[in-house]
Fold this sequence. Notes:
mainly alpha
Amino acid sequence: xxxxxxxxxxxxxxxxxxxxxxxxxxxxxxxxxxxxxxxxxxxxxxxxxxxxxxxxxxxxxxxxxxxxxxxxxxxxxxxxxxxxxxxxxxxxxxxxxxxxxxxxxxxxxxxxxxxxxxxxxxxxxx
Length: 126
């Protein structure tokens, strides 16, 4: 970790909200890759903020399922976000290693994922 990376949960939650807002703006343009990537980033930062609030040591990790595994230890109800975390991790990988995401995701699916990310954020941040 570099010396500039914050370990304050509020910093992570603030940036998570920015990523989520960015994703929703990109969704209106049906920018699939951009929307999906920013939704993943919002969820990742929100989970990291939650974990930091529980005393977790900040790590560079982008696999939301691994982060979720750690978060479930503090809040078992987060298990309901398992499939979402798996899908969002695929979105992150797709943006970094291009393939066929744009042709496989519909507008309705992307909007549903955005709603679920919003639900996750409300669950973790309040």
